[in-house]
Amino acid sequence: MAVERRSKPHYKLDCWRLAFDFVPVAYDLAHQFPPEERYELASQLRQAATSVTLNIAEGAGRNSAAEFTRFLFIARGSVTELDTIVLLAERLGYISSIQTDQAITSLDRITGLITGLIKSLQPNS
To answer: For the packed helices 65-91 and 97-121, what is the interaxial angle rounded to 10 degrees?
Structure first.
């Protein structure tokens, strides 16, 4: 992947890499939604997935740990949003329980990595 050849700070973060890898999963899941959801829940799923990677990247490009931490909190909130959208999609019958379990497992891993990074950036940690 071309990403590995570049040296931007966020490319080195495991949380960004996993979130980046989740975006196509989110798009694949959204593609399974019925046409009437194209501009509703499916759109929210795609936007939340991209928001995670974008906020991690933006925060990594900021000048202070406090700013980076703020963007990581936003990214973590988007992961929580994704979790809820995936659960709703299963409840509505748009995706299977296996797909839900796989997505939630990935999202839990991303959340853990973001939380660990937040803790490492906070003073006295």
So the answer is: 170
Phi, psi angles (nearest 5°) of residue 39: -105, 10
Look up the domain containing 75 and give its range.
15-121
Would 6 be classed as within a structural domain? no
Tell me how far apart the alpha carbons of residues 23 and 19 are, in angstroms, rounded to a whole number. Answer: 7
Q: Is residue 37 part of a domain?
A: yes
Question: Region 1-22: what's the mean pLDDT?
Answer: 83
Q: How many domains does the chain have?
A: 1
The pTM (predicted TM-score) of the whole model is: 0.91
